[in-house]
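Late entry, written up from scratch paper. The run itself happened at the end of the previous shift, but nothing got recorded in the book at the time, so transcribing now.
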Amino acid sequence: MHQINSRYRDDSGHPAQELLFKIDDLSFTYPDGKTALQDVNLAIHRGDRIALVGKNGSGKSTLARHLNGILPLQSGSLHYRGKALTSELLAAMRLNIGILFQDPDNHLFCNSLYEDVAFGPMNKGLSRDQVDQLVKSCLDAVGLLHLIYKPAHQLSYGQKKRAALAAILAMEPEVLILDEPTANLDPKQEQIFKKLLSAFQGTLIIIDHDLLFLYDICDRAVVLAEGRIHHDYSFRELVSQQHALREHGLDFTFRFSCCGDAHHHHPAPSHHHHHPTHDHGSNSSHVIAADETTPILELQHFTYQYPDKTAGIIDVNLIVKSGETIALVGENGAGKSTLAACLLGLHRGEGFFFSRGRQLDLGMRRSLWKQIGMVFQNSADQLFCPSCWEEVAFGPQQMGLSTKEIEMRVAEALRSVRLTGYEKRVPLNMSGGERKRLAIAAALSMQPEVLILDEPTASLDPQSQELLLDILNHLAMTRILITHDMFFIRELSRRTLVMHQSRIICDYPTSSFLADTHLQGINGLDYTYKNHCLEQIMDLQDQNKGQPGI
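Output as recorded:
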């Protein structure tokens, strides 16, 4: 039975708060026939701080896109400040409602951060001095003032996220909507976002699966399930009821055992550059033994500079042996994705590159795509075909394989990621978790020797993360995980490389890395604030044991 907290549905119940949005019987269906929202009823008052949560594909982003008129009304009604939506009202409303999309590149399209952040205020007709002051103030607030004239395409993903937020804040919105703001961010940058959002004085609506991040920010949790509002809780009511978290696919507590036990019960190793060993230990029973013979990939004194002379990676020495799983960690902007691009042959670089003992020249590196598979941070970046079958078949087709071989590879790849039966589905209309698995299938159909996954858990709900963990655990291949996710690092990898300021500064067993809180701290990987929130949530859950559910 759907429970709605009446405190949030009775307009007269908020004498001190102005009603901003009133949504009645809102339904929405996409052109491919997928119903995303069904009979949604919701009231949002000025000053509300709402966590909009639910499983991947539950309709959260679709609902958010109705709040500032990106998606048209199909069925039902939406009132803003007591007025029904019209084209005139939409124009004014959009000036007051800022939305930060999952992909920051949707916001950044100018030649410099200054121009990106100035774009909105200039279109509001503000004076040059006012615009200049706003741009510098907002970039300073997100910690990017020193990059004010840098083009966005030269920034790390986390820096782009902060730049996009600066562009929204420069519009001085009264309502701020954020879609997965913490996806792909290291803990240090999460805390920057947390500080900014905690200080925001307007109405806040955040779509996120990270309830620990939301704990000190939001006071209300609206839960969507299959396009409907399933529950409308106070935030503490939701997190205090573990059965409710399980019911809504939001139970995250299992993931953070490593941030407590592992961090507090082992002495930290010394902070020197460790050379890898291969008796590392792992909690994963499925990790296959690494081949101790010729490395499958090797870089010696490898350096890459971007065209503007910014360092990408500096003097990297790396050995990857067949069958091992390596975690590549470090703060946003440390050079992790750049190193992955070098391994794929996308960046030339200077130094020595070997594959199975054979030195590769520039021409040979161009064919590395046949040997190394890559799953990007944003899976939508590599999904461009009209159906799942065509998406997974695309790579093998470029290899000139026979029709029979392609069909076999597609079927096997979809089976391995639990997407059998999805062959005719439209990829961009699938949930985030499904798209992530499809991107993995597209890489697997190439039968690569090495699979690189860049932030594989970003934007996934806890249930999707568990499924992904099981899938990756059963892939008998060499894997490189670029991640800030300590749980996945612990469960999947035996060896951890730490990058800092474009260099690999440590290479040692994962068990040692998980024990080294000092190293995690200097690399933006300190989860102390989440441990504190987790302890409070556990206390709330203990207090509620044996109590009737809400």
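The mean pLDDT is 85.
(Scratch paper discarded after transcription.)
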